[in-house]
Amino acid sequence: MQKNYLSLAVFIAVVLGIGLLIGFVTLPGEWYASLQKPAFNPPNWVFGPAWTILYILIGIAGWRIWEIDRYGGAMKLWLLQMALNFCWSPAFFGAQRIGLALVIIFLLLLTILAFIGVAARRDKMAALLFVPYAGWVAFATALNASIWMLN
């Protein structure tokens, strides 16, 4: 099967573009700065580069699955995790609903893990591209939970 690299560019551009747009629209402000945070909270500058890299990996993984099976379970999980991913910042930073954001990120983590499991049967590389994402979201879930408990 010949790969369509134009669709790869579209996947990366859309995922990165929407992710960065949501990030800019829901920038942490005074409210976030005033929250009690756990000792393992990274400095704010870490989040932008981390998410940029992750969004590129997410885009590549989605493209790989799209090229194999556009309507299969892995693609449906990929779309679901994108929806959950894009809902988290508006819930946490926009609505300032730490508990709601915790529910969203927990569901996101479960969906990422499900994607890895399902995608591994069709494309091991797509599944592997999600491993750093799963690690980051697991960390972010612990961070979100800690902020919720502290505040």
TrEMBL record:
It holds the Pfam family TspO_MBR. InterPro entries: TspO/MBR-related_sf, TspO_MBR. CDD domains: TSPO_MBR. It is a multi-pass membrane protein. Its main location: membrane. GO terms for cellular component: membrane. It is found in: Membrane. Keywords: Membrane, Transmembrane, Transmembrane helix. The keyword Chloroplast does not apply. GO terms for biological process: tetrapyrrole metabolic process. The chain crosses the membrane at residues 5-25, 45-65, 77-93, 99-120, 127-150. Belongs to the TspO/BZRP family. This is Tryptophan-rich sensory protein. It comes from Oryzicola mucosus.
